[in-house]
Amino acid sequence: MSVVQSRRLLNIISLLGIACSISLTVYFYHLGVFNDMNSLQQLVGNSPLAGPLVFILIQIIQVVIPIIPGGISLAAGVLIFGPYWGFLYNYIGICIGSLILFLLGRHYGKPLIQHLVSDKVYQKYNHWLDDQSRFEKMFALAIFFPVAPDDALCLMASLTNISFKKYSAIIFLAKPASIFLYSLALLQGGSLLSHLLVH
């Protein structure tokens, strides 16, 4: 297979993957799983095998296609599967989604990133790209602490010279802390709100 043919095949596979992702997103959206925790629980909570796989797929989609509130699925993972399995499924889905996001950004470049990242967010973090070494440190901190737009920064990382190996290491090592802290904050906040509403 020539280089031209292999690139054409990769482009076809990429387009098919994007089409499948969009189709699944529309399907899950019509089911209401992205804005209704009860719908999400009904979809993934009934099967011990298919449920976790579907949930991980939903997490991948919510990372790659930024129209889904990730907080709902993060909290739902812990509520549906418990703190340990919920954390693991969240971690697997978010890490895979983050790797796909980087590869898409690296393949399609700045035009795709400007479509997926708002101009306000892009301009806010664009200056990070000026210094490669500084970017890697700031990026690692942003992934570790759940305070920055992780998905947007993952896309912007693809514009730098950071290797996929180093990027993957940052994701795998820094994501657990942010997922844990974010899930804990959501669950504690939800419990506090429920307590206040009841009383």
Automatic annotation (TrEMBL):
Keyword set includes Transmembrane: yes
Chief localization: membrane
Transmembrane segments: 9-29, 49-81, 88-108, 138-159
Bilayer topology: Multi-pass membrane protein
Keyword list, A-Z: Cell membrane, Membrane, Transmembrane, Transmembrane helix
Domain VTT: residue ranges: 68-185
Family that this chain belongs to: Belongs to the TVP38/TMEM64 family.
Species assigned in the record: Enterococcus viikkiensis
Protein's name in the database: TVP38/TMEM64 family membrane protein
PANTHER family referenced in this protein's UniProt entry, alphabetically: GOLGI APPARATUS MEMBRANE PROTEIN TVP38-RELATED (PTHR12677), TVP38_TMEM64 FAMILY MEMBRANE PROTEIN (PTHR12677:SF49)
Localization per Swiss-Prot or TrEMBL: Cell membrane
Domain of life: Bacteria
